[in-house]
Each structure stands twice: as structure tokens, then as C-alpha cells.
């Protein structure tokens, strides 16, 4: 078998890290202002929030936002919302999960930037989320499943070196097989903080693809189950061993760029696309490293735009056959008054699928009918019935339209299977008695292009929480 040259130079990367180490410099401590009293006048509470923004700007060593500090309450609130969006993007670029408090309080509860060098460390950070589902597909038994129990732990070795991890138990019971549950490490990485524009990360990483793969806690999305596009086109949750850089470019832009273990083409299928090919850090083969990245923009209040990609060679289990995977994704989120809007489009390509299908047919006796292209998209709208800011609870009906086809384009000589060209209409409601607790109910109308193999509609009821 012809030996391929690795697509990534490890010794150059080591020299790159040594160069980053020379950039390290001590941070300066800042004393946090006391939180505003809920009963304080609006003027006092707004002034305190402005002081918190100023503190974060200093902590990140940023220049203060442009513009006059004065103005009406409405003008000051608009400026504050814009700056909070930028600073939230900066803290979220670190991808350290945290609870989802109310919008303005998220400024102090979200993952913090590198602390001051003399800042005292208290208890290690921790978090977690859980969810339980009841699913009833038409004509099938009703299933009650404690779907996920997840704990997250972190530790600060120093102000510049931090660790974060995520351990998940699926389906409540682990007996060594997927049918009885799974125990897996979805994240376990070290962060090396250098400066806002560039930082280093290594370990088990979540691929920065799409809206949900990195932020998939139950209160973070509408509906009991995750969208089909984020399951069958983007194989959430997608994680593996890797390393890379991330940072904040200013003016609302953040980025992540990782080298990660590639998927295994031997696990691709007609119905689930590349999902079965995830190596998940289990003796991951890295003859060729995959490259993945994401750019996100939060420079406009209440608007988030993102785009991401993943490219890799995936045929390391085959001789003289190395299908190349490419995935592109674009997404957007916007809040207008009481409305929430969300949309996402994703498409993936796999080269040499004709040879891949024939090779797997010889190995297994079954033609997997892997497509050379799969795509999916969804559009979602929700409306908050309760007045924001006046009560802690939230009640929001929503509707989501999804199209997803894992047989979008086939290699010559292979026919698409119509049962995998699917549409889903999800209508439901989400009630949050607390921002970190969600009770969800929805009904899904499912359709496909097959006249022989229909998809049953499904009723879902769930509860999820994080802390």
C-alpha cells in the first residue's frame, strides 16, 4: 500500500507552541462590583451593569467601547446590549459550559476570561445537565427513558492553564453495550490562555460545527429531541481527540480552528450518513488529521451568525481507497421582541462512494448505499407568551420545519433510497419555571418519499435541566 505523507507537520506545530509561550504575560486583577439589588432603581442597576462591562473590558485588556457614556436610558441600554453580545461571544469562545441565567446576569455567570494572576482560587468549577423523555410513535409502545445524565468538572492549574471535562451516561444503565446505555467522555481538554485573539486547546474536543454540537444542554433548544439535521447530517454529539486555537477577533467576531481525528468511512451508512463513523477518541486513527473550524458573529444585539466546516480523509481502513469528507454549515439566530428565530443549513460530501460501497459490500455482504452528498436544513420560530424581565418563568410555543436527506446525490450506478429523503414538522411548547429548567411537549409529523416504508408520527414529552 502506498504510504501517504501526513497532512499535518507535528514538529512545526511544536515550534508554533513555543512561540505562543513567549507571548504569555501576567494579567491584572480587577475587583468585581457588587451585584445590583433587584429593588434598586433602573438607573442604579443600569449603571452597575455598565461597571461590570467595563470590568470585563479591562480583564480582557480591551479598549472601552466607542461612543458617549451618557444618553437616555434606552440609548444606554442599546449600547449595553451590543457590548454584552460582544463580551458573551468572547467568553463563549472558550466553550466552557455554564448555566443559562437571565440575559443580563449571564454577563457575570458565564465562563470568565483569564483571571488576574493573583486572583484566589476557590472550589473547582462544576456543572451538569440531565433530561428525561417520554416518546410515543404511532402504533408503537410508549417509551420512558432517562436519556442523559451529564456531569462537568474543571480545574485551574494557574490563571493561564485550565482544564474542563464532560462525562455522560446515556439511557441510565451501562452494561457494556449501546442497547443498555453508554458511558463516554465527550470533553476533556486543557486551555492555555495567551491573549484574547489567540489561545490554545488540546484534548477531547467537541467539533465546532453548527448550533448544537457544542451547546446541546436541554434548555438551549426548543423541542424534546434535538433537531434531525443536528443528528443525521451533523452527527451531534461529535467529539474526538484533537488540538487547535481559538480566540476573539474583535467587533463581534470569534473563531475556532482545530485539527482532529477524522471519521471512519467504514461506519458510514445510507440512513445516518457519517454518524456511525465517529471515532470518539477510542484509539482514534490519525494517519491524516481532519481540520475543522467555525467563525461566529455577535456584533449586532440579539443576532448571532455562524459558519463552520470539517474536511478529512476517511479511508484509513482500506487499501488504495481514501474517500474525502467535506462538510459545510451555516446558521443564524435572531430575537425580535418576543419572537425567537433560528435557522440552519448543512451539507456534506463524500468522494469515491462507488468504490467505498463496493469495498464494504465485499467485507460485509451488504451494500451500505452511502451517498456522495447529504444535506439538511431547518427553520424555527418561537414566541414568548410571558412578558420578559417581569417574571422569571417563560412559556413559548414553537414550530420547526426540517428537510433532511442522507441520499441527496448518489454515485453513478447507485439509486437513492426514498425512505431517507425526509421531512419533519414539529409543533410544541416549552415552559421554563426557571431559566435553567425546561418542561417540553411537542408532536412531530414525519414524512418521507417512500410509498412502501412510512415514518410514524411521534408525540414527545420531556424535562431537562442544567446547573
UniProtKB/TrEMBL annotation:
**Signal sequence annotation:** 1-29
- This protein's source sits in the domain of life called Bacteria
Cite the entry's keywords alphabetically: Coiled coil, Signal
Q: Which residues form a coiled coil?
A: 39-90
Q: Which InterPro entries match?
A: Porin_dom_sf (IPR023614)
Record's protein name: Phosphate-selective porin O and P
What is the native source organism of this protein? uncultured Acidobacteria bacterium Rifle_16ft_4_minimus_37967
Amino acid at each position: 500500500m502506498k504510504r501517504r505523507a501526513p497532512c499535518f507537520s507535528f514538529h512545526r506545530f511544536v515550534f508554533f507552541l513555543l512561540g505562543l509561550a513567549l507571548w504569555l504575560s501576567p494579567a491584572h486583577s480587577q475587583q468585581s462590583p457588587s451585584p445590583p439589588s433587584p429593588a434598586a432603581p433602573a438607573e442604579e442597576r443600569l449603571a452597575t451593569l455598565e461597571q461590570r462591562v467595563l470590568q470585563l473590558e479591562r480583564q480582557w485588556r480591551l479598549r472601552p467601547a466607542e461612543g458617549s457614556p451618557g444618553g437616555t436610558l434606552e440609548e444606554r441600554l442599546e449600547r449595553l446590549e451590543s457590548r454584552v453580545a460582544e463580551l458573551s461571544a468572547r467568553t463563549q469562545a472558550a466553550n466552557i459550559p455554564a448555566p443559562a441565567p437571565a440575559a443580563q446576569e449571564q454577563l457575570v455567570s458565564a465562563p470568565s476570561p483569564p483571571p488576574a494572576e493573583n486572583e484566589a482560587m476557590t472550589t473547582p468549577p462544576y456543572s451538569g445537565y440531565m433530561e428525561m423523555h417520554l416518546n410515543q410513535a404511532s402504533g408503537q409502545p410508549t417509551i420512558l427513558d432517562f436519556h442523559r445524565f451529564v456531569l462537568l468538572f474543571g480545574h485551574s492549574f494557574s490563571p493561564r492553564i485550565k482544564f474542563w471535562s464532560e462525562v455522560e451516561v446515556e439511557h441510565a444503565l451501562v452494561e457494556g453495550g449501546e442497547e443498555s446505555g453508554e458511558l463516554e467522555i465527550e470533553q476533556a481538554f486543557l486551555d492555555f490562555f495567551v491573549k484574547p485573539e489567540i489561545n490554545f486547546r488540546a484534548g477531547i474536543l467537541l467539533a465546532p460545527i453548527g448550533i448544537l454540537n457544542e451547546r446541546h444542554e436541554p434548555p438551549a433548544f426548543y423541542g424534546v429531541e434535538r433537531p434531525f439535521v443536528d443528528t443525521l447530517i451533523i452527527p451531534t454529539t461529535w467529539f474526538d481527540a484533537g488540538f487547535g486555537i481559538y480566540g476573539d477577533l474583535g467587533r463581534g467576531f470569534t473563531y475556532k480552528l482545530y485539527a482532529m481525528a477524522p471519521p471512519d468511512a467504514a461506519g458510514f451508512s445510507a440512513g445516518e450518513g457519517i454518524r456511525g463513523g465517529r471515532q470518539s477518541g477510542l484509539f482514534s486513527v490519525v494517519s491524516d488529521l481532519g481540520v475543522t473550524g467555525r467563525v461566529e458573529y455577535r456584533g449586532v444585539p440579539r443576532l448571532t451568525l455562524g459558519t463552520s466546516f470539517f474536511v478529512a480523509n476517511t479511508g484509513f481502513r482500506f487499501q488504495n481507497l481514501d474517500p474525502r469528507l467535506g462538510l459545510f454549515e451555516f446558521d443564524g439566530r435572531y430575537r425580535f421582541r418576543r419572537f425567537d428565530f433560528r435557522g440552519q443549513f448543512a451539507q456534506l460530501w463524500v468522494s469515491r462512494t462507488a468504490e467505498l460501497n463496493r469495498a464494504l459490500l465485499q467485507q460485509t455482504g451488504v451494500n451500505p448505499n452511502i451517498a456522495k452528498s447529504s444535506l439538511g436544513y431547518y427553520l424555527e420560530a418561537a414566541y414568548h407568551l410571558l412578558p420578559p424581565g417581569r417574571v422569571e418563568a417563560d412559556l413559548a410555543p414553537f414550530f420547526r420545519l426540517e428537510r433532511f436527506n442522507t441520499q441527496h446525490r448518489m454515485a453513478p450506478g447507485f439509486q437513492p433510497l426514498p425512505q431517507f429523503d425526509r421531512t419533519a414538522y414539529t409543533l410544541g411548547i416549552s415552559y421554563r419555571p426557571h431559566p435553567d429548567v425546561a418542561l417540553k411537549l411537542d408532536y412531530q409529523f414525519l414524512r418521507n418519499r417512500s410509498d412502501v416504508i412510512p415514518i410514524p408520527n411521534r408525540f414527545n414529552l420531556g424535562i431537562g435541566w442544567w446547573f
